[in-house]
Design brief:
Length: 123
């Protein structure tokens, strides 16, 4: 079993949860008032990265760096969106610098996707 194969179920799970959360957060932003921009930003990140994780799960046998990209994108999305949602509903973020840390994780996840273009999977 390849390392990518171990993470495929996690990527499917996160993809589904991020898709669900993205739609729910968009609805909350549209109807919630207050700091709706926080929920809108969290929704955008969830909805942007849900299909990316689904694609990484589906292409795990062809992208050598899928496991790393998916972990970085998944953790980054959780931190970034979770921090914004926490800030909106609890009045404080998860921990200092949680959203920027998540943002950097997502960016490095996308770089890992790009690295997959040059690092070939052995058949």
């Amino acid at each position: 079993m390849h390392l990518n194969d171990r993470f495929v179920p996690l990527f499917y799970l996160l993809s589904g949860l991020f898709g669900f959360a993205g739609v729910a957060l968009a609805a909350a932003a549209a109807h919630g008032g207050g700091d709706a921009h926080l929920l809108a930003s969290a929704s955008t990140m969830c909805l942007a990265h849900a299909p990316a994780l689904l694609a990484l799960a589906l292409a795990a046998d062809r992208i050598k760096t899928a496991w790393l990209a998916g972990l970085l994108i998944g953790i980054g999305t959780l931190l970034f969106s979770g921090d914004l949602v926490s800030l909106r509903f609890a009045g404080s973020g998860l921990f200092p610098m949680a959203a920027p840390t998540g943002g950097f994780a997502m960016m490095f996840g996308w770089l890992a996707v790009a690295a997959g273009a040059v690092l070939r999977v052995r058949a």
